[in-house]
Amino acid sequence: MSLGEKIREQRKQAGLSQEQLAEKLNVSRQAITKWETDKGIPDVANLIAISDEFGLSLDYLYRFLLSYQETSVAYAKHRYQFRIRKLLFLLFRIFKDIMLLYQVIINRSRKLSSIFIYNQAILKFIKQIRGIVLSILRKQTHTEYPYP
Q: Rounded to whole angstroms, how far apart are CA atoms 88 and 117?
């Protein structure tokens, strides 16, 4: 149970509406709504007022607050890691496509040796970058991708 759910439960047990609780705590009804939906958390002064209003200990409310913050941090970390994996996979696909394009260019430029050597160097560089991105991807996801 989250802090917001606990506040809602206590408010309903006391038979108060959000407006009535907001008046008692000297906050807006929207603040109560944010707290109850876990879109916001009360500051320390409001936590004290809530504990006084419902006869709950601060320690009791603080435990719910800590569990909320730990969940929020874990979720944010998960989203961050997911975005990094998504970006790295996109980079991997881009480098793969660039590498294929350069292979076509190299095959067409075999007649001109200076351009051929230049294009081979670029292709080698692209392969190295692609390998770096792939190794980071593998470390991030701890899985193997089907592309060598």
A: 29
Measured between alpha carbons, how far apart are the two ends of the chain, in Å? 46
> For 45-98, what is each residue's pLDDT tens digit?
888 899 888 988 877 777 776 666 666 666 677 677 777 777 777 777 787 777
SS3 of the chain: the string is CCHHHHHHHHHHHCCCCHHHHHHHHCCCHHHHHHHHCCCCCCCHHHHHHHHHHHCCCHHHHHHHHHHHHHHHHHHHHHHHHHHHHHHHHHHHHHHHHHHHHHHHHHHHCCCCHHHHHHHHHHHHHHHHHHHHHHHHHHHHHCCCCCCC
The stretch 19-43 carries a mean pLDDT of 90
Alpha-carbon gap, residue 79 to 86, rounded angstroms: 10
What distance in Å separates the CA atoms of residue 133 and residue 148, rounded to the nearest whole number?
12
Q: Tokens in use for 21?
A: 């609780």
Report the chain's C-alpha Rg in angstroms: 28
pLDDT bin (cut points 50, 70, 90) of residue 29 is: very high
